[in-house]
Amino acid sequence: MQTPSGHLVEPALGARLVVLASGGGSNLAALLAAHEDPAYGARVVGVVSDKPGAGALDLARQAGIPSVVVAPSDFADRDAWNDGVREAVEVFRPDWVVLAGFMRILAPSFLDRFRGRVVNTHPALLPSFPGAHGVRDALAYGVRVTGCTVHVVDDGVDTGPIIAQTAVPVLDDDDEGTLHERIKVAERALLVETVGRAAREGLRVEGRQAVVGA
User: Which residues of the chain have pLDDT under 50?
Assistant: First the structure.
């Protein structure tokens, strides 16, 4: 595992965001709503998806945001696909790459290209319950509080330096669906706030510490 140690991203007024998404795009929708305010300090300039039918692509089209599909089935192997994702993102000249429900692991070659500028959301309070089933795993463990995390992406699975977190109580009658819906509400707000602050104020990463506005 490698963390983006000692990396500084300077503030950038009007920062360019590229969003990677695999699903319906609720986090993308929140970012699109936020970027309509010039004071937000960042704007979505491109959307990349690994799934041709992703709802996020429809949202991008409706908003007039350029989008591209980089489907693994169109490439000879995983390395070629990762190169394709990197090239697609590079076209948009991003200041930040935001993984918003993107359900694939990016190669070190991608992260090296955008080191310290790739952020992800996760529906649990990392380092607890990483991976694809964070909500289910939290319920199964019996925790009384879970939540969501925005973190810098490194070479591991949900192991990068944590930027911000929000707690969400687990109710006695929660199932995976009800709990996940409440986490999604918190997650959208946290992602919008964190990305906007990082764009306006900059982000410094030193080892495990990620500090906005440093």
Answer: 1-3
Strands 42-49 and 15-20: parallel
Please identify which of the residues 122, 133, 151, 180 carries the catalytic annotation.
122
Cβ proximity of 149 and 124 under 8 Å: yes
Distance CA 76, CA 29 (A): 32
Nearest to 15 by CA among 170, 152, 199: 199
User: CA torsion, points 111, 113, 117, 120, in degrees to nearest 10?
Assistant: -30
Q: Is 7 one of the catalytic residues?
A: no
Q: For residue range 104-132, list pLDDT tens digits in order.
A: 999 999 999 998 999 999 999 999 999 99
Q: Hey, what domains does the chain have and what are their CATH numbers?
A: 9-212 (3.40.50.170)
> What's the pLDDT at 11?
87
Gap between the Cα atoms of 137 and 176, Å rounded: 9
66 cis-preceded (ω within 30 degrees of 0): no
